[in-house]
Description:
This protein is of the alpha+beta class. The chain folds into three domains: 3-218, Alpha-catenin/vinculin-like (Four Helix Bundle (Hemerythrin (Met), subunit A)); 236-368, Orthogonal Bundle (Helix Hairpins), CATH 1.10.287; 370-521, Histidine kinase-like ATPase, C-terminal domain (Heat Shock Protein 90). The protein has helices at residues 3-68, 74-101, 107-139, 143-231, 246-328, 333-364, 377-392, 414-430, 489-499; strands spanning 373-376, 398-402, 409-412, 437-445, 448-455, 476-477, 480-481, 503-509, 513-521. The strands form three sheets. It has a five-stranded mixed β-sheet with strand order 2-4-5-9-8, covered by helices on one side. A two-stranded antiparallel ribbon has the order 1-3. A hairpin with a 2-residue loop joins strand 4 (437-445) and strand 5. Helix 1 runs antiparallel to helix 4 (143-231). It starts with a helix and ends in a 7-residue tail after the last strand.
Amino acid sequence: MNVRTKLLVSQTLNAILVIGVAAIAVVVAQRFNYQLGRAELAYDQRQTMTMLAVQTFRYKTTIDKFMAADGRNMREIEQSRSDVEATLAQLHRQTEQELSFVSLGDRAEEADEIERVGELRAGLAEIDHMIQRIVQLRADGRLQDAQQLHEQVEHWFVDELSEILAKAMADEDSEVQAVDSEIADIAAGRVAFLYGTGACALALSLVTGFALYRSISRPMKQLLFGVSALRGGDLKYRVPSGDGDEFAQLARQFNEMAEALEDRERRLLGIHSQLEQQVRERTLALETANRRLNYLDRQRLQFLADVSHELRTPVTILRGEAEVTLRTQPDSPQAYRETLTRIAEQARQMGRLIDDLLFLVRSESDTVAFDRQRVDLRGIVADAVRDGSALARGKRISIIEKLPDDPVWVEADAQRLRQAALIGIDNAINYSPASLAVEVSLDAANGRAVIGVLDHGIGVSADELPYVFERFYRVRSGQNRQTAGSGLGLSIAKWIAEKHGGSITMSSIPGERTELTIELPLLHRSDS
């Protein structure tokens, strides 16, 4: 039952109670007014009856005086008789008025009163007739007959008339007492009714008010508690929903709002968490980039220092060889040749360093041209081994070549791939002790061509291994450089391999072995 229906039922019950009380009050008031009217009429009748008794007694007294006065005072008899008749007529009118006023149940008693008035009239008429006879008898001198008739009149007044009047007075007194008792009962009943209806109205108001208060206060308190819970941050709180009244609908809407707020907060927390994660990632990336930039800056400075040193050393040697030759005047052409040979070697090293620097600059600007063709990697690796053998002779290092019998076709720039392979071989030679061998292999499997360069030199520590392909980086042992070079070769090789769609990796066990691996995509048969 909804609140509107509850209010309607409560107001309807109160209205029914008020209407019932009003109807009963109207009935009681009508009954009370009826009894008051009857009481007033009864009082008037009793007063008239008393007056009738007095006037009848006076009438009798006048007759007695008339008989004692030898027939005189006839006028007084007529006056007394007129007064009695007037009072009797008044009593008759009052009786008829009461008869018309009373209800059907009370009319029988009033009809008896009409009858009694008729008896009085008949008796008085007979008295009148007897008085006329007495006057006539007295006029005829028949005094004894007149006296006997007077005794009959006396008897009628004393016996019959007194009895009728006494009975009438008793009836009127009884009626007055009954009406008074009825009025008292009605008054008492009205008071009791007022108390009873007041108590019933109060009880009904309390019951309906309490029921209505409870039906409204409980869900209202639950809703207020829910609002306080939401304001306190408890978005999981739900208001219990009862019947299908307005508060139940409000509770369901409140719960839907709480669920929407909880879902929104959950999404906001998720977004906030994602933002925090992104901030952490960006912060970490910035820190990593900053460390990287610092590292590259240090490497750049180190590279500039190393390049300066590398360039200064051959320049110093060139100047020293030339100055020594110019000052000492060698004895033979052979001495000049040896000096020029040393000068040429230093010039070649300077040219190689300058070429590497120029290559890096061109790779950064992506202006290095590639002449891609279908080539057999066996020839490229063989050329790189031949060039590397010339570099290895000074350290008495041999190069072991392991090539497959079948061609290994790739689409590539042969000169650039030979440069990458030669960089790997040169790097292995530089980090290998004298008299040890360097192994160069070529395999093809799973759609990839694999060039491997294995040496048994000093190796690379696990801390330095991630940086070997970085530009300007050279492997060190402690604070002392172990090998010559600019630290640009592996970076150039990595760039060449990636430009061919391949990759380059290095694995090492310090003091035992180091292997450089270049992987390239094979040329498919359909492409060949």
